[in-house]
Amino acid sequence: GVPILALHPGVGDRRAWNWCAPAWAAAGHRVVAYDRRGFGSTESEEESYDELADLAAVAVATGSRPAVVVGNSQGGRIAIDYALQRPADVIALVLISPAASGYPRDRRATMSAETELDELIEAAEAAGDLDQVNELEVHYWLDGVDQPVGRVAGDARQLMMEMNLRALRAAPVGPARERPPAWPRLAELALPVLVVCGEYDLDRYRRLCDELVAAVPSARGATIAGSAHCPQLDQPGVVDEIVLDFIATLDNPR
Prior knowledge:
The protein has 254 residues and is α/β, with parallel strands linked by helices. 41% of the residues lie in helices and 13% in strands. The chain has helices spanning 21-26, 51-61, 74-85, 112-126, 130-144, 154-169, 203-215, 231-234, 236-248; strands at residues 4-7, 31-33, 67-72, 90-96, 193-198, 219-224. It is globular.
């Protein structure tokens, strides 16, 4: 099988793929997931850095060129930028509720429940209560802002609480290198792209996913019922199947 590079969201680390990676590996793929600077087990000095250079270094060190790149949220933004910068190193993209640099702000609709949670998070941050920030952010991204608190329970919730709290407590890593926005360049993505969004995700992410499918010539979309922003945590079996089915459609992936 082809290598799979899995890029975690900003509310997680490499462990966000704990329940997907074994299924992909069992299907014959080498799966590489790593902690970006400031996440998980990484240690680094505070300095300017390049997210794409970091990703390329991981790809070289693990023999993952070319690869199918799977990215969730911030990981999706990085995956898009990587494919634009290094098209020869990317076989295809799987973008799960991705962010995208340059997406027009006037199209970023805000839900009332989102605004209320934003205010609570800001108050908790001002009070220095990282535990409260963590609980609110896990509800925001794992449950869905307009879903009941604790909709997702058990190991998935515990893992996200651990991952996000570690990120909240991490020391500053320094500024990431800025690059031209990706949104005006989406038509340059001349490779297969699968865009996945959760039914309970924020309106702005569902809209971005729809527009991303329309803007990328070879993109297709999929919605995961009963999930929000991080379906690999609460619907890993569905994500496993979607990704493997997509890879199976690729012509001569190597």
